[in-house]
Specification:
Length: 75
């Protein structure tokens, strides 16, 4: 499992958790997900969190953007 952290100065204000299906096997609505799935993805995002005082300031967008860049770099 991997995480991309977003900082405001020294404080972590948000993150995005990602990994392979083996690293993140549990997902919501598994029956629906499996029914529509042709093959397992190489990566999946398991969680995105933004601290309540930092919502609406692009923290989640920054976390997901950095995560997608890390996934692209990993192949």
């Amino acid at each position: 499992m991997h995480q991309t952290l977003v900082y405001d100065g020294d404080d972590c204000v948000g993150w995005c958790q990602y990994g392979s299906p083996a690293e993140l096997p549990n997902i919501k609505n598994r029956k629906v997900y499996d029914k529509e799935l042709a093959s397992l993805p190489d990566w999946r995002i398991g969680c995105v969190f933004t601290g309540s005082r930092h919502r609406g300031h692009g923290v989640a967008r920054a976390a997901v953007t950095a995560t997608l860049e890390a996934i692209r770099a990993a192949g």
